[in-house]
Amino acid sequence: MISRSNYVAITLIMCVVLLMFQLTGISENVLMNTGENIYAQEAVPEELEKTEQQRYEEQTESLLLAEGTEACVGLAGPKTDACLTAGRNWCIAQKREYCRYDSLADAAADEDGAGFLITDGTKLGAEDVETLELLSAQGRHVVISGLPEPEVLDESPELRNCLGILEIVEDEITVDGFRLFAGLVMGGETVYEDYEQEMPYARLGSSVTAYAVAWSEEDSFQELENEELPAIIWRYAPDEGRRYIVNGDYLNGQLAAGILTGFAADCEEVSVYPVVNAQVSVVENYPVLADENGDVMEREYGQSSSLVFRDILWPSIVTVYYDTDDAMTVTGALRLDYDEDTKLDESLLQYYYEQITKMSGEMGLSGYQVSDVPLEEKLEQDLEVYEQVIPDYTILTFQAGGLEEEEYEDLVGEGNLLEDVNTVLKDYDGQGEEPFFSYLENGVLQLPIYMDSRVMNNDDDFRSRCLQTAYGYFGTALDTSKVIYPDSEDDVWNIISNDWSKNYRPFRVPFECFEKTTASEADRRVRNYLALEYETELTERVDRTGDAAGAGNAAAGGADGTENADGTGNAAVAGDAGSTGTGGERSLKLHVDAPDGDSYFVLRVHGEEVTAVSGGSYEEIEDGWYLLTVTDETAEVTLDQINHADYYIE
Q1: How confident is the model at residue 59 (pLDDT cuts 50, 70, 90)?
Q2: Could you tell me if 23 and 85 lie in one domain?
Q3: Per-residue pLDDT, 581
Q4: Which residue among 98, 108, 183, 322 is least crowded, i.e. fewest CB within 10 A of its CB?
Q5: Are the C-beta atoms of residues 635 and 628 closer than 8 Å to each other?
Q6: Is-contact 207 238, C-beta < 8 A?
Q7: Does 57 reside within a domain?
Q8: Strand 608-614 vs strand 634-641: parallel, antiparallel, or unpaired?
Q9: Domain C-terminal end among 267, 290, 323
Q10: CA-CA distance, 388 to 379, in Å (whole number)?
Q11: What does the alpha-carbon distance between residue 520 and residue 345 come to, in Å, rounded to a whole number?
């Protein structure tokens, strides 16, 4: 029998639970009735926005040094070399000081100059052998983008040896794909079976570490050991300084940031660099409120386009977002054909606003259309509908897609048609010369969308690994306009949604540590990331007997003759860096000046592990890689040396 006191306690608990549920429903209804963008109050204040942009621009200018220092990066060669443009953008992103040299010879003559050099390898000749050897003897590392012509290598055994090449087996071969070993970029080892490319067949010498080797289904390839396969990316360390060689054009575009990050981390005991920590998932051109392309809609779905978007697409979209726990950003087009004066179902806009807000999502505007009316006129029509239906909604995000910058730069930002927009989502340009993130002149920030949510081919996966390694940022989008105006028979929703749900999760598992955000949330993090400044301080190791020990070069282990992927020796697998000494703890201090709250860093260590963080927190991404969240002006990371024998990355 229940006592009176227990009965009263149970009744009170039930009342409290009921009240909580009621209050949740009431708060949701209150929020729905406001018609406001829940992220408007969280947007960067105007004054801070200007401060952050100014800090970034001043910082960008100050990173270029008139003279090189050991800690800076040296760009050796003409400014127009694509790999040097990519190198400059990488330096700006990671806050690394850099200098320029007209040639490698000039860099070698500057004995106390840049300790990490980047140059175009396609221009190397026999006359550069002495320079490369001198740089290694000086303890300076050189990144070589591309190989010289095969005939140049054939005629100069000294140059081949200088690059760690035993022989050029064939001047040009076509391979199906490549094997990427663990350690260069995040994500672990993988084989890309469908990444066709042409390259010289370079067979490496015995004292070389391979990061990537060619792969093919041909029997002749399957019979070869790793060290005999055509090499794509490798490290050769004949002296104190290391050479990182890339057989191909991987360093000529945006992918270079991830590969250079891996190289730099390999030649440092402890490498730490800032990242954004944001994953943005966008549904483009959703919702559409007009009934368009009726014949196709009737044939494929038996309904009008507005009903297809509401009754078929929306439930599937919600399911994917619930399943992946992504933050929703949609960029509506309202109509796609502005030449046709089709009636809009404006009540649907209210419906979508309530549904998206309920999911803590964000609505923006898209610049896409299948007609050819001026962009300003199209946007004016869209805004008129928003002002009639949800007049208090603040549009913060504009989807530029494939539009050229000059088409929209005078339409977004303060004083323009879309005056509240502070974020532009633009299509990714893999070979672009501009930095990965960029500002318009009026302070509007541009974020790249570099993945198609329904496609994940081998090149997509490699791109994702490189860019998330470098920036801790993921931008993906699904274009729903294809449902109404299909380009192929695969542009029907059952195939699109199947591709989307199939590809969404598996390829993102290695990067689940990065937070899922709306476009506006990512905007604030990117601005803070671009403007922050930091310094690091690494203490000496104290071994477990209490005696101070030199830090040593933890990254140096495994440079020569260590095991490859199958444990056979010769060409070593990347990530085999080890450490010396008897073990013990040391600390890394981060002094951070971030204008807008928390900041994020990736820490790369060799033969060590993070055991504690004060002034922030940490999360292990994978062996040797950590995500640091810094909440105070100074954070201290405690590192403990682990058994080198246990540290080979499989």
Answers
A1: very high
A2: no
A3: 45
A4: 322
A5: yes
A6: yes
A7: no
A8: antiparallel
A9: 267
A10: 14
A11: 27
Angle (nearest 5°) at CA 410 between 409 and 412: 70
Amino acid at site 534? Y
Paired with 640 in beta bridges are 585, 609
Q: CA-CA distance, 489 to 501, in Å (whole number)?
A: 19
Burial class of residue 6 (count of CB atoms within 10 Å of its CB; 0-12, 13-18, 19+): exposed
Which tens digit of pLDDT belongs to each residue from 4-42? 666 666 777 776 666 565 544 444 454 455 689 999 988
Our CA dihedral for 437, 439, 443, 446, rounded to 10 degrees, sits at -50
Q: Does 194 score more than 90 pLDDT?
A: yes
Same domain as 568, residue 501: no
| Domain identity same for 558 and 488 | no
CATH number of the domain bearing residue 261:
3.40.50.880
Q: How many domains does the chain have?
A: 4
Q: What is the pLDDT of residues 514-555, one digit of tens each?
A: 999 999 999 999 999 999 999 999 988 766 544 444 433 333
What is the predicted pLDDT for the residue at 26? 44
CA neighbor of 474 nearest in space, from 466, 484, 464: 464
Q: Does a structural domain hold residue 115?
A: yes
SS3 at position 2: coil
Give residues with Cβ within 8 angstroms of 29, minimum separation 6: none
Question: What pTM value is reported for the model?
Answer: 0.89
Give the domain CATH number at 473: 3.20.110
Q: Which residues contact 78 (CB under 8 A, 6 or more apart)?
A: 84, 102
First to last CA, the chain: 62
279: left (phi over 0), alpha (psi -120 to 50) or beta: beta
CA dist., res. 87 & res. 85, Å (int): 5
Amino acid at residue number 628:
L
Domain that holds residue 8: 1-34
Closest by alpha carbon to 63, among 103, 93, 106? Answer: 93
Residue 521 lies in a domain: no
Segment 389-405 shows an average pLDDT of 96
Alpha-carbon torsion (300, 305, 310, 311), positive or negative: negative
Phi-psi sector, 232: left (phi>0), alpha (psi -120 to 50), beta:
alpha
> Exposed, middle or buried, 65 (CB in 10 Å: 0-12/13-18/19+)?
middle
Q: Is 227 within a domain? A: yes
Write down which residue in 211, 234, 267 finishes a domain. Answer: 267
**pLDDT for 3 beyond 80:** no
User: How far is it, in rounded angstroms, from Cα 272 to Cα 603?
Assistant: 4
DSSP tag of 511: G
Q: 91 by DSSP, 3-state: which?
A: helix
DSSP annotation of 144 reads E
Shared domain check, 136 and 112: yes
Q: Quick: pLDDT tens for 234-290.
A: 999 999 999 999 999 999 999 999 999 999 999 998 999 999 999 999 999 999 999
Helix/strand/coil (H/E/C) assignment for every residue in 325-340: CCCEEEEECECCCCCC
- Nearest CA to 630 out of 606, 604, 594, 577 is that of 594
Q: Which amino acid is at 75?
A: L
Mean of pLDDT values over 84-112: 97
Q: Name the 3-class secondary structure at 151.
A: helix
Domain co-membership, 7 together with 111? no
Instruction: Say yes or no: 76 and 211 in one domain.
Output: yes
The predicted pLDDT at position 642 comes to 84
**What type of residue sits at position 259?**
I
Q: Would you say 75 and 110 are in contact if contact means Cβ atoms under 8 Å apart?
A: no
Question: What pLDDT digit, counting tens, does each position of 560-604 carry?
Answer: 333 343 333 334 444 444 344 446 799 999 999 999 999 999 999
What pLDDT is attached to residue 583?
Answer: 61
Q: Do 313 and 457 lie in a common domain?
A: yes
Statement to judge: residues 493 and 589 lie in one domain = no
Q: Which amino acid is at 28?
A: E
